[in-house]
Amino acid sequence: MVCTWRIRGERHAARRRRQNFLGLYWTLFALGVLGGGFGGCGAAFAQAVDTPSNSLGNPYPQRIAAPPLDGGEWVNVAKPLSLPELRGRFVLLDFWTYCCINCMHVLPELKKLEHTFPKELVIIGVHSAKFEGEHITDNIREAVLRYEIEHPVVNDAQLTIWNRYGARSWPTLVLIDPAGDVVWAANGERTFEEIKGVIERGLPFYQSHGLLKPGPRPVLVGEGKLAAQPLRFPGKILADAAGDLLFVADSNHNRIVIASLNGKLQSIVGTGETGHTDGGFDACSFNHPQGMALVESALYVADTENHLIRKIDLPAAQVTTVAGTGNKGSAWADVLGKDSGSLDGDAVPSTNKLRSTSLSSPWALWHRDKDLFIAMAGMHQIWKMALDGSKIAAYAGNGRENIVDGVLLPKTPYEEGFASFAQPSGLTSDGTQLFVADSEGSTIRAVPFEPDGKVRTPVGLTNTLFDFGDVDGIGSEVRLQHPLGVAWADGKLYVADTYNNKLKEIDIAKNSSRAVAGTGRAGTNDSDKGLEANFNEPAGLSAANGRLYVADTNNHAIRIVEIAPPNRVTTLRIEGLTAPTASK
């Protein structure tokens, strides 16, 4: 899966800039960016390049001198890196943007490569932003820490390097050989095994010709920026008024924190280690968990980077895995596998259906009656899981990444003319319909519970993934920026407008939106007036007892916003909570 690049006012200018690099663009096409064969003007251009690696027997028959990496601001190294100083090693460029789920899926593959080739390979993340908030270097630094990135990253805010290399989608990967030539490129979610094979194909040649000169990895700065603290990038939050409980997905501590609504620590679920072990609270493990749903005495957890749904039996203090294989799936591929035969997967026996179906970055959960709805961010769909274990399947979305209203589910995978989502990341309900924070489209979607109903978009634009901003108004006038959380309270829908650092109130009857908290500037200050307080990429939202509980992700904090005007904002301290000693 890939995210395609277009940005409103820059489209035509970027097209003109790319024409200046047409030869390189077609060479990347030939090398695999678009999966095409070698030919056309790219062939003539590449063959005309004479480089030191043009010896007979080179395993990469098409090569071109790599353009420079200047033009950006380096994020986590002391000084800019240049390709000449890295000569003698392979260099893998990862063109990414930190909002993109496809880019997130590639990062673990890159980490495996870094540890497999610690001296022969240098990975460089070229951050080429989609959203306005992603242009800010401080925000990218936070993302580097949040995603636990172990390689240098450059902020390519003006898309200088992006255009120089002819990239056109996220993620795009470009491999440069030890002689300084581009030898391979591809877009989409490429795997460790695939890239490892490409590198291993060339190692003997460059070693035998004296071109391979292993060296230490670039020294990173800022890795120790975050001291031990009670919470680390909390992603989602769930407030239970009836039980006086607050559940916090302490995502980068790989655990679930349970406290009272006034902040008294009750329990901690998980060791802090990254893993997928079931068992007791002090033995189980998660991998960057996100959304949660409480069903009687059981807490269901979207164990996002494990691609699993976990169940916490609160009275028994035990964690079990209820859905997912642990491997990342792709939209429809597993649902239409040989054991299924239909979109709803009825052919698979109930005893193994949930554990034999691969999921992809489940990000948010919502419970209704006998079902659990899942925002399947990695598949751009809404899924539904029967709590009795009999069924799990796509419920809405054709699998295409887009903002399209319409009938819930097609008969044929990816069929156009049906509802499409773009990285759904938050769920809530007013009891009659499901509301979705559709983050990549910067919209709020409404999904009916009746299977013959249609998806609609109360606020924001349909049919475009690249029209975003910070505009209050009605219907299609409204602009949000990568919202990740939603909560229903007192007849209104509240939205964590994440990249705008604000909370918005939406009147669904009027399809109107207005800001209730946040200046828009990143910060930590509380205030008696909500619009004078600051947040830093709030992502989780839940309501209880006239309050909104906010997982203020980049502030590593839980904030409380009074629903009644003037929407006073305070910070909740969880008494007795400390960082896990095992957390990495």
In words, what does this structure look like?
The chain has 584 residues and is α+β, with helices and mostly antiparallel strands. The chain has two domains: 3-208, Glutaredoxin; 237-572, TolB, C-terminal domain (Neuraminidase, 6 Propeller), CATH 2.120.10.30. 14% of the residues lie in helices and 31% in strands. It has eight helices and 36 strands. The strands form eight sheets. A seven-stranded mixed sheet has the order 2-9-8-4-5-6-3. A five-stranded antiparallel sheet has the order 14-18-17-16-15. A hairpin with a 2-residue loop joins strand 19 and strand 20 (371-376). Helix 2 (22-31) crosses helix 3 (40-47) and helix 4 packs parallel to helix 7 (192-208). The longest helix has 17 residues, at 192-208. It is globular, with a radius of gyration of 24 Å.
Report a brief summary of the structure.
It is built from 8 helices and 36 strands. It is an alpha+beta fold and 584 residues long.
CATH homologous superfamily placement of the largest domain: TolB, C-terminal domain
Strand content: 25-35%
Query: What Rg, in angstroms, do the CA atoms define?
Result: 24 Å
Our measurement of the CA-to-CA distance between the termini, rounded to an integer number of angstroms, reads 29 Å
CATH topology of the largest domain: Neuraminidase
Helix count equals: 8
How many β-strand runs?
Answer: 36
Shape: globular
Report the sheet with the most strands, covering strand number, pairing sense and barrel closure.
7 strands, mixed
Please, how many domains? 2
Please state the average pLDDT score. Answer: 89
Uncertain runs: 5-23, 29-55, 334-351
Reading side by side through the largest sheet, how are the strands ordered? 2-9-8-4-5-6-3
CATH top level assignment of the largest domain = Mainly Beta
Class inferred from helices and paired strands:
alpha+beta
